[in-house]
TrEMBL record:
Keyword Signal annotated: yes
Keyword entries, A-Z: Signal
UniProt superkingdom: Bacteria
Native source organism of the sequence: Streptomyces spirodelae
Domain IPT/TIG span(s) in chain numbering: 313-390, 392-475, 477-559
Entry keyword annotation includes Signal: yes
Family annotation (NCBIfam families): beta_rpt_yvtn (TIGR02276)
UniProt-recorded name of the protein: IPT/TIG domain-containing protein
PANTHER family with a match to the protein in the record: DIHYDRO-HEME D1 DEHYDROGENASE (PTHR47197:SF3), PROTEIN NIRF (PTHR47197)
SMART domains: IPT
Length: 559
């Protein structure tokens, strides 16, 4: 421990702040009956849907102050900020609509009619789709955010409340409060592909960053169910406080925060042990919870107290890594930080952007290797925290560099310094890579958001955007129309032409299940050398391209 008055990245006390172990709790007044809450993609602004007053409050996360409120909106209950930070989507429970709000001007640019009594709203990681649970009509509305129109209405279980989008955007999960179940939605077909039973009045749902686990609050049993997304099975049940409702997971996937509306607490779950490691008192009737991108602060709406509780992790710094070029927004939490005079990364000063008694927001200066970060105030200099500088990496090749419009195929990205890669973008659509080595990533390609065509591929590492301009081509599945000859000798050797569309990326041709030699003439024809047949009779002709597979059943006859 440091001596009195010396800043320390450790426990803190401040005016209007309560300390609970390694956490500080700050309370801010907002509008009437706050419900939904969303943190912007950069973590600088927090938006709160005030259901009772018909407004949305905006909180500055650096200074922990309420900067503005905008409206009117009609009984807002759910809120989300788009990944590009340009628009705020608000679900209005009383008017069966979603308001699309310009984040800079706070003006409503579109009203979208959805189902009855919309409850929760989530935007896909790439920002191209929005999903709204309609509690009164037992549906989920799928919104195209480029046109701000509903493109599908998906029947789910009874009384859907919480909803979450998988990190790869291939699936959406809706908690059916009255149906005691969870609906699994395939986003490419906009249909329910599975229903997971065994829940008890579920309300909220969140998903791990790797997409492998779901955490669902059960208001009927005061528990959180842990679900394996691969097997669709409940693998764990965790007792929490009374009336659990909202739930959110930290960006590193280590902690789950649960708002217990009947016990006025937040349970914090360790995802390694699946146990509650802390119970934090908050305001009356906590409803929803959202966590900042650095994982250091959780914002909890208290519907019965017209406040927001900010649960801040102390003795911490995040993020603790960034590009060598600098510019990373770093939050430092601790005590006696209100009079900060200087933040140093080793000996290099950093720019202080915001400062409170227990939090400092700075921009990292350029650097390399490991820097020790210290805070200097009138009372002295704090204990150091390490910050790691990383190169941005380089992308050398993508293999294969083409695939179906529907995605879901696996590719390999090769290059240098890719070991910290966290996202791969295909155009604007993100995918989560699996790090094979520092020079190779394995990626499941997401569905195209724009149909067939070429999109840029961008890899984001701890060091920023990787160098190397690479592209990926989405290809329409092949269509076969016929053969120029439909029969031939059983010993093969003759050449025919397969006609159709989208054949330019043909990778494999088989006749009767036997691989055939081929050459591509154009996008509409491929010359095929017929292999020897097993016996006389009709056989299938199958063509596999980068876009998929097509078969002419019984189209060729061996004689």
């Amino acid at each position: 421990m440091s001596k009195a008055g010396v800043p320390a990245v450790a426990g803190a006390t401040a005016q209007a702040v309560e300390v609970a172990g390694p956490f500080a709790v700050l309370t801010l007044p907002v509008g009437s009956k706050p419900d939904g809450v969303a943190v912007g993609p950069f973590g600088l602004r927090v938006h709160v849907a005030n259901n009772g007053s018909g407004t949305v409050s905006v909180i500055d996360s650096g200074t922990h102050t309420l900067t503005t409120s905008f409206g009117p909106v009609n009984s807002p209950i759910g809120v989300q900020v788009t990944p590009d930070n340009t628009h705020v989507y608000v679900a209005n429970s009383a008017s069966d609509s979603v308001s699309v709000i310009n984040r800079d001007s706070f003006s409503v640019v579109r009203e979208i009619r959805v189902g009855k009594n919309p409850f929760t709203l989530r935007v896909s990681p790439g920002g191209v789709r929005g999903y709204v649970t309609n509690r009164g009509s037992d549906t989920v509305s799928m919104i195209d955010t480029t046109t701000n129109a509903v493109i599908a209405t998906i029947p789910v279980g009874r009384g859907p409340t919480g909803v979450v989008v998988a990190p790869d955007a291939l699936e959406v999960y809706a908690a059916n409060n009255a149906g005691n179940s969870l609906s699994v939605i395939d986003t490419s077909t906009a249909t329910v592909t599975a229903t997971i039973d065994g829940l008890s009045a579920p309300v909220g749902v969140t998903i791990s960053p790797d997409g492998r686990r779901l955490y669902v609050t059960n208001r009927g049993s005061d528990t959180v169910s842990v679900i394996d997304t691969g097997t669709r099975q409940i693998t764990g049940t965790i007792p929490v406080g009374s009336g659990p409702r909202g739930v959110s997971i930290s960006p590193d996937g280590r902690l789950v925060y649960v708002a217990n509306s009947a016990s006025d607490t937040v349970s914090i779950i360790d995802t390694d042990t699946l146990t509650v490691t802390a119970t934090i008192p908050v305001g009356h009737q906590p409803s929803a919870v959202a966590i900042t991108p650095n994982g250091l602060s959780a914002y909890v709406t208290n519907s019965g107290a017209d406040t927001v509780s900010i649960i801040q992790t102390l003795n911490a710094m995040g993020p603790n890594r960034g590009p060598m070029t600098g510019g990373t927004l770093v939050t430092i939490t601790g005590t006696n930080l209100g009079s900060a005079q200087m933040i140093r990364f080793n000996e290099t000063p950093a720019t202080i952007l915001a400062n409170t008694s227990n939090q400092i927001l700075v921009a990292s200066p350029p650097g390399s290797g490991t820097a020790q970060v210290t805070v200097t105030t009138v009372g002295g200099t704090s204990n150091p925290k390490p910050f790691f500088y990383y190169p941005n990496g380089f992308v050398d090749a993508i293999d294969p560099d083409a695939g179906p419009v529907a995605g879901r195929n696996s590719i390999t990205i090769r290059g240098e310094s890719l070991g910290t890669a966290s996202r791969v973008y295909f155009g604007t659509v993100p995918a989560i890579p699996t790090v094979v080595s520092d020079s190779a990533l394995s990626v499941s390609v997401p569905p195209s958001s724009t149909g067939a065509g070429v999109v840029p591929v961008a890899v984001w590492t701890a060091g920023g955007l990787a160098d190397g301009e690479r592209a990926y081509t989405y290809v329409v599945p092949p269509v076969l129309s016929g053969l120029t000859r439909t029969s031939g000798p059983v010993f093969g050797g003759n050449t025919i032409a397969v006609t159709g569309s989208y054949l330019a990326t043909t990778q494999h041709v088989s006749v009767g299940g036997v691989t055939a030699r081929f050459s591509i003439g154009s996008d509409t024809t491929a010359a095929v050398v017929i292999p020897a047949g097993a016996r006389p009779g009709p056989v299938d002709v199958t063509v596999i391209t980068a876009g998929g597979t097509a078969t002419l059943s019984g189209a060729y006859t061996y004689i």
